Every structure is written in structure tokens, then in C-alpha cells.
Amino acid sequence: MGTLLYKLSRHEFSGISLLRWLQILLGILALVTGGGLLPGGWVAAGTLLLLALGLAGLHHTWRRQDFVRFVPQEAPSITPQALPPTAKLPIFASGFFSVEGKFQHFTWLQGFWRTFATREHAVICLVPPSQYMWVGQWPHHEVGMWYCFFKPHHIQEIHWGQVQYADQTLPAIAVDYRIRIPARHRFQRDRDVVERIVLAVPEPGYAAQILADLLYDLHPPLEQAPHPNGAGQTLHPHHL
Hints:
Number of helices: 4
Order of helices and strands: HEEHHEEEEEEEEEEHE
Helix content: 25-40%
Number of strands: 13
Largest sheet: 9 strands, antiparallel
Distance between the termini: 40 Å
Radius of gyration: 21 Å
């Protein structure tokens, strides 16, 4: 359901998302049915309206988790180790991205994990052109490279687990980090928010390397950190 709602909400026809077109269609059918032009009367009209509202509610619920299902698990015991600045590990990322002052949430973007010599972490992904249901097009202004950057002292929590999207279930690391959103007009102020980036890693060995890279900035290391109830472990960084 999350995959369907994501694709319907992000592909557009005439500048309006396919999900919104579907809701408009359900609303029109409800009016026509309630007016007696189609069989079913007010019972059918009410059902159509409830369906439109249900779609809106489901979309809101799935959007809050970036249309993926992340299941926390006990983190493996891994020795912290910095990733070389030249390394690029393949991932699928879901969460909050930015580019050239623009901000957007995306789901299951293919890309790479990198850590620079300054220890700044980077998720570098591509939003490709896309078509859905023959008429839906991905917005052209969003096509291209998008990024997620954060430094060790921005990290709030690290979660190990699995993530599900469509028919795929992969090892995953969810990182909650603090980011500053600049004001968009004179009556706003810059604000700090906590966002989450979920990294689905096709290769388990790479998942371990990313976790070790993140733990390199934490204190204490994973093997010394407490394991609450032995599952769903949350790792809290030492704020620099």
C-alpha cells in the first residue's frame, strides 16, 4: 500500500498528483450518484466519499514514515571503524533531501553513502525521470541529484533493523539527525528540526561498514553500550 500511495502522490498529470486526481474523481462520482444520475443513491455517494477520505488518511500515515516500514532489531556487535573518504557504498535511501536551497522527502532513491575526511556524512542519490500509469510524470524540476549531509554532532540516534518497500526487505540503518531549515521569507526564522534518513543496504557487509563508520563518531563504542531488552537497540551519540 505504501508503494502505491507514494507513486500516486509523486507522479503528476497537468501539475496535479494522480492521488489528487483519484480523490477528485471519487468526489465527482459521489456528487453524481447522490444527485441520482447514477444508481446507488446516497449510500453509494457516502461510500465514495469515505473512500476518498480513507485514501487521504492512509497517505498521511504512510507519508510520516516516508512510505517504508522500518523494523528495529538488535544491532550487531561491530568494532567502530572509519570509512575511507574515497569509499562509496551503494544504498537505497528514504528520507529528507536537499539541493540548492530546496528540500523534499523521497523514498527508495538509489545512491551512495560517503564520509568525507572531515567526518561529514553524505547520502548522494539520483531522482530519475519516471512515468506511472501511462499519464503520470515525475515533476521535471525534481529530476537530478539530491543530497543528505550531516556531521557527527548533528546525529541524535542511530537505529539498526530491516526496512520493507514494495517486495523488498533489506538490512537498514535509520539515522535521526538535526538539520537547520533556513527561513523562506522575512516573517520566518531559521529553525532546527530532527529528520530521519533510512539507509537500505543490498549487501549486508556494506551495512556493517556503514554502521561501523557511524559508530566511529560515538562514545562509547557499540560493544560497551547498553542493550535495552536485547532488541530494537537505539544508539545515542556523544554530542561533540
